[in-house]
Amino acid sequence: MRELRRTGDSPEQPPATGQFASRRNLLLGTAAAGAALLATGCTSNETKDESDSGKQPAGAPGDKPGKKVTIGFAGPQADHGWLNAINEEGRRRAKAYEDVTLVSTEGSNDTAQQIGQIETLINKKVDVLVILPADGKALTGVGLKAMRAGIPVVNLDRVFNSPQAYRCWIGGDNYGMGLNAGRYIGERLKGKKNAKVVELAGMDSLELTQERTRGFDDALKNYPNIRKVARQAAEFTVESGQKKMAELLQAQPKFDALWNHDDDQGVGAERAIKQAGRDEFVMVGGAGSRHSMDVIKADNTVLKATVLYPPTMAASAIDLARALGQGKGVGGLAEQEIPASLTLYSAVVTKENVDQYLPTGFN
After folding, report:
1. Fold adopted by 174-308
2. Which CATH number fits domain 2-172+311-344: 3.90.226.10, 3.40.50.10860, 3.40.50.2300, 3.30.565.10?
3. Between 196 and 27, residue with greater pLDDT
4. In angstroms, rounded to a whole number, what is the distance separating the alpha carbons of residues 74 and 105?
5. What is the radius of gyration, based on Cα positions, of the chain?
6. Which of 9, 37, 38 is nearest to 159 (CA)?
7. Cβ distance 313 to 170 under 8 Å?
8. How many whole angstroms separate alpha carbon 196 and alpha carbon 148?
9. Tens digits of per-residue pLDDT, 75-114?
10. In 3-state terms, what secondary structure has residue 304?
11. pTM (2 decimals)?
12. Which of 63, 168, 190, 237 stands 20 to 30 A from 98 (CA)?
């Protein structure tokens, strides 16, 4: 199923706004700051004594090992740059801890197969589970099964259908992606009369795509001089990005800005733009690939920014799982327990700040 194979792509995205806002009760300032908060954080619930005064951030070379924790990691099939980065970030973070043993599944986009893989981890009696479900609704039952077996679950990005199926959710903000893309474009074009923008969206059947578009449209409402004149939905692939971008370029002889939802399909969009010889507009990408960041830094194409959907969330999920297994909270917060949910911020990467985010760019 194509819709289960792309950036943060689940019909069951955890709501970021409105009636469900309380389920995303902690907003981290930037993707890097989000990881840093957790990294400095899996601190003990016990009162510090002198022996703890020099404690280094979790995952740093000087971090003191604690109780040994076995974490089961059930991630996606790595058939997309972002999904591959999720798996790599999780494995890399686990290796940073002497007290963590990571037991990973092969990764699957087939719900039945992934359920079987998670049940195997439950039978192995791992201490904590980190799960990025192929389909949050379909895998809710196995999340509930793990929780009932006394194995806390860190639900990564694609949310289960019931909050009882996980102890903590951590993921990106699709509405925020659209909102910040719109704000960036709005500020670039606020002095231009009758500015026109176009949108290269993801798959329209997905709630994440709808949320990104809604955020984008809401941002543009604050710029009465800007009008969105066209929108095409692609499929988060290079091929679809090239095809749909070519159609947009043919239909719109001139416009001022383009927002593309996904950097992988953006590679195809860039090809179509180059083939058409067009350069009268600015392009904003989505997700934060290394390719996009390199192009932004070079500053020699229409691509001027990308809005993050950070795969570092997988590393932070390992931090949270370790904290759960050791009965700790998160550093920088007063509470003795980790939060129920963490929403990562969709930072806008531009030429001015790209060096800061280059280490998080995925291939």
Report:
1. Rossmann fold (3.40.50)
2. 3.40.50.2300
3. 196
4. 5
5. 21
6. 9
7. yes
8. 53
9. 878 777 788 899 999 999 999 999 999 999 988 888 999 9
10. strand
11. 0.80
12. 168
